[in-house]
Amino acid sequence: MSVATKLLAAAASLGLATATIPAAQAQSAPVKSIVLVHGGFVDGSGWEGVYKILKKDGYKVSIVQNPTTTLADDVAVTKRAIAAAEGNVILVGHSYGGVVVTEAGTDPKVAGLVYITAFAPDQGESVGKLIANPPPGAPVPPILPPKDGFLSLDHAKFAAAFAADVKPDVAAFMADSQVPWGVAALNGEVSAPAWKSKPSWYLVATNDKMIPVDAQRMMAKRAGAKTVDQAGSHAVYVSKPEAVAKVIEQAAKGVGDKQK
């Protein structure tokens, strides 16, 4: 017999109305706060389409603007967003943002994690380690040599590698508005992976030219994530916001907000 059932039975035996114990039902309420974390080379503006869908569906959404300088800095900024959110949250990361949510997701307010074609490192892993030895035939991201400790993508190759299914003018804007990605962030190692203690979801972008599909599947399986395949580029969160929002909402409905 569940705790809720026992409470209801006890209330009935005492002649109490079931409305006197609403907390028993609150356990299964969906999480309504979402925190979105962007990856390297971009900022939070790419989440606009996903944001609008989630807001329309009644969710409270925060978009983190990580500096992408070091993993520690990005985790600190993300944790401030988590602290400011109402109730428990679903923490969502794209690409390198998956590293950030893996590290920040141990926060007690985080009810679940969503990876959008993202890195989901294990303890001691970083993006640098995960991409060090690509399998034969895997796509090679057009990352230019670092300048002053920061990385960028070749502008001429940005669209094909990062945003092949995004409208050309939008892809051009993304290329021209790149945010330099710190080598220190690339090499930031996870200390305690949140996916080991929190339920996880993973959207695999099957046309991704930045993170090999096989690598996505490996990380999703290792994390025990509920996995959804979606045809799309690395920028699937921009090109297919409906599909991305659907996975996020599945996560929000799949976990209970235990914060009273």
TrEMBL record:
Q: Which PANTHER family match?
A: AB HYDROLASE-1 DOMAIN-CONTAINING PROTEIN-RELATED, ESTERASE_LIPASE_THIOESTERASE DOMAIN-CONTAINING PROTEIN
All copies of domain AB hydrolase-1, residue ranges:
34-246
- Entry's Pfam families? Abhydrolase_6 (PF12697)
Coiled coil segments of this chain: none
Name of this protein = Alpha/beta hydrolase
Give yes or no: UniProt keyword Thylakoid.
no
Per its record, what are the GO molecular function terms?
Answer: hydrolase activity
Q: What is the taxonomic lineage of the source species?
A: Bacteria, Pseudomonadati, Pseudomonadota, Alphaproteobacteria, Hyphomicrobiales
Swiss-Prot/TrEMBL keywords: Hydrolase, Signal
Source domain of life is: Bacteria
The organism is Bradyrhizobium quebecense
Q: Where is the signal peptide?
A: 1-26
